[in-house]
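Annotated sample (chain length 199).
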Amino acid sequence: MPTLAAVTYLMFLTYVANFLMLSAVAAKGAGRSIWLLGAGEPRITGWTFRLAFAGAVLWPPVRLWTGGIPADPLAVMLPGMPAALSGHLLVAVGATTALVSQYHMGTAWRIGAAPSEQGGLVQTGPFALSRNPVFLGQALLFLGLFLAFPDLAQCLISAAMIAAVSVQVRIEERGLARAHGHSYADYAARVPRWIGRLR
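Output written by the structure step:
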C-alpha cells in the first residue's frame, strides 16, 4: 500500500475509533444506550451503515493482499497522485467535521432515530452552519475513501454509505420536527440541510 494510501486508511481507522469512543462517552453521560439504528427507521438503513463501515475497514487490506479486482476500470480511470491526494484531503476534512460535530452534540448524540428517543435540538457550533454536519462529514469521508482507493468495491461501499446518509437525514429530520415542533421549523428555515449561507 503506497504511503499516502496507508496514511489515509489510518486516518479512517482513527475516525472509527474516536466515533466509538465519543459514542460510549455520550451513552455514559445519557445513562442509556444511544444505539438506535433500526429502532425507528427501516432496518435496511441501519444495516447499510454497518456494512459500509465494515467494508471500508476491511477492503483496503484485502485489496492490498489480493491485488484488488482484476482489470478494474475505475482503478484505470482514477490512478495516480491527484485522485489520491484529493481523497486524502476529503478523508481528513470529513473525519474532522464529523468528529467535531459529534463531540459538540454531547449527551444529545444518538446513532439512529426512534420516536421516543429524540435528543435535544443542537443549534450551535457546526450545527449553526449545517443541520447535519456529522452526516456531511461522513459523506465527505466516504467520497474521499473512494478517491484514495478507486475501484469498484470501494465505489459500491461509498455509494451505499452516501445513499444511507441521504435516507437517514430525512428520517431524523422528520423525527426532530415531530419532537421539537416550531423550534425545529425555525431552525430548518435558518440553517441549510447540508451546508450553505444562513438564511
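Annotation: The mean pLDDT is 87.
Annotation: The chain has one domain: 3-190.
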